[in-house]
Amino acid sequence: MVQAPITVTVVDSNDLKYVTAATAVVNNAYRSEGGWTTEQHIVSGQRCTEEDMTSFITENGKPNTLLFALEQDNVVGTVQIQPSHEAPNEAEIGLFSVSPLHQSRGIGGKLIRQAMSEMKILGFNTAVMHVLENRPEILSWYKKLGFEETGERIPFVWPEMLKIKDLHFLTLKKAL
Q: Sorted alphabetically, which keywords does the UniProt record give (predicted)?
């Protein structure tokens, strides 16, 4: 079976039609039983609401930049570029997700590479990623993309959602 090509695009207000689909992609990637990226056994609750997604789209570029991976007219992945508050030359990769039904097709790598290209255009020189410390398979995947651990551990942003107490993020960085 021939699969439709995947396009990655910077989101604008015309993409409000994708709010429900994009929200479902994020929540399915992070909180469903399917896919190798799920955090269902680690974190409870939704990762993203439709209200959040609407805000991400309508405020795109102020200061965050949201990208969608589309297969024909269907959202199959998301990634967001978030400028660092601590270092003006760094931006974090966030809201990174690929639908479990579309994983292992190279979409995640395509999204990350496009996000890093956009970061360069926006004037950033370092990409930052925060990954749960108990996810060796995901840490390994990011390392294949050139990210390196910095040795920094930071607390999980929403500790009340953790199913495993005292879990931290590891900070990874990659020069652009």
A: Acyltransferase, Transferase
24 is in which domain, residue-wise? 6-126
Q: Six-digit token pair at 26?
A: 């994020």
SS3 83: strand
Sheet holding 126-132, edge to edge: 6-10, 65-71, 74-83, 90-98, 126-132, 168-175, 148-155
Q: What mean pLDDT do residues 2-26 have?
A: 89
The answer as to whether 56 is a domain residue is yes
CA dist., res. 29 & res. 24, Å (int): 8
Please write the tens of the pLDDT for every residue from 109-127: 999 999 999 999 999 999 9
Q: How many domains does the chain have?
A: 1
| Under 8 Å between Cβ of 84 and 92 | yes
Supply the pTM of this predicted model.
0.85
The residue length of the chain stands at: 176
